[in-house]
Amino acid sequence: MTGHTIVITGANRGIGLELARLFGQRGDRVIALCRTASPALAQTGATVIEGVDVAAADGPESAAAELGDTRVDVLINNAGILSQESFEALGDAEALEQMRRQFEVNTLGPLRMTHALADQLGRGSKVALITSRMGSIADNDSGGSYGYRMSKAALNAGGRSLALDLAPRGIAVGIFHPGFVRTEMTGGNGHVEPAEAAAMLAERIDRLGPDSAGRFFHANGEELPW
Ligand SMILES: NC(=O)c1ccc[n+]([C@@H]2O[C@H](COP(=O)([O-])OP(=O)(O)OC[C@H]3O[C@@H](n4cnc5c(N)ncnc54)[C@H](OP(=O)(O)O)[C@@H]3O)[C@@H](O)[C@H]2O)c1
Asked: What lines the ligand 1 site, CB under 6 Å?
């Protein structure tokens, strides 16, 4: 799939930046949404729209207004945040606020962006939700990380509904874990570089269709348990 219009949130760094680079290099038109641009993003040649905070009151709607009547072939909801809350922190007001913030960004952000861009998405369009394996309830064998796990589990639940609700419009919604990736989010720890994760995600997105929509996949193609 090349020559398409790809919209990516959180495209200024990390996995989003590498997705912008990859799709641009293969001949797609990339519209990179971000709060603040970066020199690396500018170098990709993407059209950059700054000031898009997916959790802000008018963030998704302002992005939609900027896009105007642009037909969006692929929307990649990549922007996300991680903070760590232990069991001990659950009585702490600051930790609870971080948990609410993760829900705003990680869960409501992708749902609101997808809804706001509904007029730009059409038959044959695709929506990718970049979730996390940490949102898998079945896979949780280490506890902790309450806000992140819950926000991504809730994103997965919302993603399944989106897939069902948008299928009649011919829009496929994919739910993808990028792998454990060396970005600022992980403090540079991980199994793969952002460019490798982006390449695997692009393959998942290319293959996304009615059969894989609404299911939870690792970027490497393995289906993950809810
Ligand atoms: N790295 C991993 O191992 C891993 C594993 C599983 C899932 N993920 C998911 O992959 C996605 C990308 O993560 P990453 O590793 O690339 O993280 P990252 O390097 O920390 O980048 C996060 C991106 O999200 C943006 N962002 C954060 N809050 C935002 C908001 N309110 N509005 C708009 N943009 C916002 C950041 O922009 P600013 O620069 O403005 O903050 C940045 O561009 C996230 O959804 C993450 O949960 C990552």
From this structure: 9-10, 12-16, 34-36, 53-55, 78-81, 105, 130, 132, 177-178, 180-181, 183-186, 190
Domains and CATH numbers, the chain: 5-218 (3.40.50.720)
The pLDDT of residue 224: 98
Cβ atoms 74, 7 nearer than 8 A: yes
Residue 139 phi/psi, 5° resolution? -90, -5
Average pLDDT over residues 73-77: 99
* Ligand 1 atom nearest to 79, measured from its CA: 24
Smallest CA separation from ligand 1 atom 47, residue? 80
Contact 162, 107 (CB under 8 A): no
Whole-structure pTM value: 0.98
Which atom of ligand 1 is least distant from the CA of 54? Answer: 32
pLDDT > 70? residue 1: no
- Structure tokens of 57? 């009151």
